[in-house]
Description:
Number of helices: 9
Radius of gyration: 19 Å
Strand content: under 5%
Mean pLDDT: 89
Largest sheet: none
Number of strands: 0
Amino acid sequence: MQHDATSTEISRTLKDLVLERSDRLTTLMQFGLDACCGGDRTLKDACASANVDPETVLAALRRAEVDAPINARFDAKAAATEALIAHILDQHHVFLRRELPRLELLARKVAQAHGARHPTMVEFDATFREFASELELHMQKEEMVLFPTVLALARGETPSHHCGVDGPVAVMRYEHERAGAAIHAFRRLTSGYSVPQDACTTWKALVEGLRALEADLLEHMHEENNVLFPRACALAAR
């Protein structure tokens, strides 16, 4: 019976796994499995591409769920479109606009203080600055064009923007892929969000903030890629 259950689980897509429980996102990312931009792959295929044992991934997912009550999370799939967009704005966009400048400052300080001994942190500083700039522009495009269009469609109104949703959604998905690639780079440059023995308090605060940033950003992209964007395209097709 356990074998049958495992076979069923590894045949599910990453998207289906995280739609059921969004807290699986971070665990999957720890194994290099991207459920936001590569969510249509099965767990089996994704693990094969990443050279990871699917049994190990499933065991990690089960362990992570023990202390994560399912009723404590926002259910993007069940939320009305207006509520989902409000959640993205109030939760994720507010979080990013607070944390990106703070982490950018911390990264600059760490690069200046430790870059000679740890050159990867100089590369991290440059990578993070580009990442933060792109995310700010990304949020502006969502707030000024895509979200108003989707809200109008959800209310049965004519959008003030006449660009449709397919084009903006394609752009947003591409920019999510770039953000996901940056997250992978952050993990690589920080050796999995670890700190060396000579790390200062600023470096430790940076790494702690990066962990929180990754968790929030993965959920953010999941709610858009796997819920909001398909819903927006369906509304536009009516």
